[in-house]
Amino acid sequence: MQSLEFAAGLYRKYASDLMPVIEQQRAFHAENRERMTPQLDDIEAELTYLHLRELRPATVMELGTFHGWSTTWILSALRDNGTGTLHSFDRIDNVVRNVPTALADGRWTFVQGDVQKALDLVPPDVDFLFVDADHSRRFGRWYLAHLFPLMRSGTTVSVHDVFHGKNARILSEGREVVSWLDERGVELFTAARRHAPETFAALNEVRAEVGIEGARGAGVNPMIWFTLP
To answer: The domain 4-227: what is its CATH number?
Structure first.
């Protein structure tokens, strides 16, 4: 499902819905500048929203919230879908102070603590898994062995901070995930500027075509997407 053609189609299909969300996120960033550092770059944030709009998941799990930038993008997609809930996990609770009540009410559950000790709180039947937490090799190996088996085949997964350079960093979470996918013959999609420059350029052309300007700046966009086998 994840491909350049698919991503470009999402931009064209949902451009009119995406534009007000970008304005919302730009204002959200400005209002919380002193206490929030956005973690997602523009294309990966937009594609997160767009994937969620198209897939219309009933249950989303977010592993790692930090200050709430990704959380608000996800919740905005669920709001615009008119359906779906988000279950977020993090050791720190900065996100609770930042996420607007209007986005959170009725669709968000936050669990504070170490997910490695809280697998019993992972919601059943997750449709979309977003991972942006501890980027160590150890943690990558842990969730590949313990969290992924809880997910159904066909679940869409995104993992942040994989391709900051041409390849995933040695001894990193990203390298573990990419190796795991390679071993199983699972294709990934990324718009990472350094790993997939042609895809990055093509999506920027589509964004210009439909009049999309990002909420914070283009950036590196190191996220990957794939479907669990």
So the answer is: 3.40.50.150
